[in-house]
Design goal:
The chain is an alpha+beta fold. It has helices at residues 2-10, 32-51, 67-73, 75-78, 142-147, 149-155, 201-219, 267-276, 302-313, 347-360, 375-385, 395-400, 418-431; strands at residues 14-16, 28-30, 56-58, 64-66, 80-85, 93-95, 115-118, 122-124, 134-137, 162-171, 186-196, 227-231, 243-251, 254-265, 282-283, 290-291, 294-301, 314-319, 322-327, 338-342, 366-368, 389-393, 404-407, 413-414. The longest helix is centred in the N-terminal third of the chain and has 20 residues, at 32-51. The structure holds adenosine-5'-triphosphate.
């Protein structure tokens, strides 16, 4: 983990938020390569969950929502973690459910009694800070999908079973943020609410468990042997859930939740219908029945995927008798998919290399790397940021109109013509 954290800072993936002022615990900024990786994750989720299907539509609801929503959803009462504070010298606060024993793990001090701490960030809307103006930054995007359910069914032609998908920021005032991006206080959720006929939840729950696992392994390229399902026992389920399965990854600190798939039944629509006094039922055109659909919800954050991909991809090996660090990221997610490097700073080469990179942009995430230094050094830099293909323009290129593709993983090389480069790279990515 330390090696990955150091690499992400050194190479411009991630910076601690507001670092020049000492940082803010549980908040991170994304640098140029981090942004590219994040966008790739988000786009692949959207593509596979929404664009490639005809049963799921998108939604963007607001980040700040009134208290009434969180009152109805149960978050005001139940979105809490048990907190214990150390009464010894360190005064640290701990999540009680993660403690073993009655002493502070840091200084051995006595811990005070358990109290419940609500994880939602509260704010005020408008100039007056009174009870009536209280609102919350959303801790999940799901409630937006339930609150807008009526709008979606009456303004579109969706038919059960169908889904509403949303990506966007969520905020949780975690007691113990940590493990780098694994647990942060501001993160980006990608959630799907998939509405099904009452009591047809079991089959759809099973479908989404398998489909989401497939996405992590086949689309993102996460190592299958480091992923597993974890079915929550009944007593640890969230207040809204009938059954929950986590897709877990084997992190350096142990197995941890990457994505959660929850069977929320009609809990949310029922409570919103009751509290808002609006009819949220769906009229089934096949049976003419009115009912509240049940919901299966796969939910994952970009941050958990981000840290998983980096840990999964990080490797050290030896090439030409020199040790190297390499991120073996799947080309689908690599921040730079192809780097074009002229062998020297000679003007003729630069001109061709720039033409080559221009012809790749738009189709691939392409970077032009003309920094001085030995070609080997530039390959190493690209290996560290996970670039699967480097395209080298050399003096022969001027006469044979061909370039060298150097593969990150095997360091093997091949020499296609410039004309066929685009197609060749597409084939290499598809074959990965
Ligand atoms: P925990 O019990 O670990 O605090 P949770 O079970 O309440 O978390 P969920 O509500 O199931 O978490 O969250 C859904 C998904 O959102 C998780 O699978 C994870 O991908 C992501 N997630 C949740 N909390 C955080 C966080 N603090 N930082 C980053 N991602 C998070």
């Amino acid at each position: 983990m330390e090696k990955v954290v150091a690499l992400t800072k050194r190479r411009g993936f991630i910076y601690p938020s507001s670092e020049i002022y000492g940082g803010l615990s549980g908040f991170y900024d994304y640098g140029p390569y981090g942004v590219a990786l994040k966008r790739a994750i988000r786009d692949l989720w959207w593509r596979h969950v929404v664009e490639l299907r005809d049963d799921i539509v998108g939604l963007e609801s607001t980040l700040i929502m009134p208290e009434a929503v969180w009152e109805a959803s149960g978050h005001l009462a139940n979105f809490v973690d048990p907190l214990r504070q150390c009464l010894g010298p360190c005064r640290r606060r701990w999540r009680a459910d993660q403690l073993l024993g009655d002493r502070c793990p840091q200084c051995g001090g006595v811990l005070d009694d358990v109290r419940m701490f609500n994880l939602m960030f509260k704010t005020h809307v408008g100039p007056v800070e009174d009870r009536a103006s209280e609102a919350y930054l959303r801790p999940e995007t799901a409630q937006g999908m339930f609150v807008d359910f009526k709008n979606v069914i009456s303004s579109t032609r969706v038919r059960v079973p169908f889904g509403i998908a949303q990506q966007g920021k969520a905020f949780r005032n975690e007691i113990t943020p940590g493990n780098f991006l694994f647990r942060v206080r501001e993160f980006e959720l990608m959630e799907l609410e998939y509405f099904v006929k009452p009591r047809e939840d079991d089959e759809w729950f099973d479908y989404w468990r398998k489909e989401r696992m497939r996405w992590h392994t086949d689309v993102l390229g996460v190592d299958k042997s480091r992923l597993r399902f974890y079915d929550h026992p009944k007593e640890s389920l969230s207040h809204y859930s009938k059954q929950t399965t986590d897709i877990e990854y084997e992190f350096p600190f142990g197995w941890g939740e990457l994505e959660g798939i929850a069977d929320r039944t009609d809990y949310d629509l029922a409570v919103h219908q009751e509290k808002s006094k609006q009819d949220l039922t769906y009229l089934d055109p096949e049976t003419n029945e009115r009912y509240l659909p049940w919901v299966i919800e796969p939910a994952v954050s970009v941050e958990r995927i981000f840290v998983t991909l980096l840990l999964d991809a990080y490797d050290e090996d030896v090439v030409n008798n020199e040790p190297r660090v390499v991120l073996r990221l799947h080309p689908n997610v690599a921040p730079v998919q192809v780097a074009v490097v002229p062998l020297s700073k000679k003007e003729e080469l630069i001109k061709v290399a720039q033409e080559v990179v221009r012809s790749l942009r738009g189709e691939f995430r392409a970077e032009y790397d003309q920094t001085g230094g030995h070609i080997g050094r530039r390959y190493r830099r690209q290996d560290e940021i996970g670039t699967p293909f480097c395209v080298t323009v050399d003096f022969d290129t001027l006469s044979d109109k061909a370039v060298t593709i150097r593969m990150r993983d095997s360091t093997a090389q091949e020499r296609p013509s410039i004309d066929s480069l685009n197609e060749r790279l597409k084939a290499l990515i598809a074959a990965h």
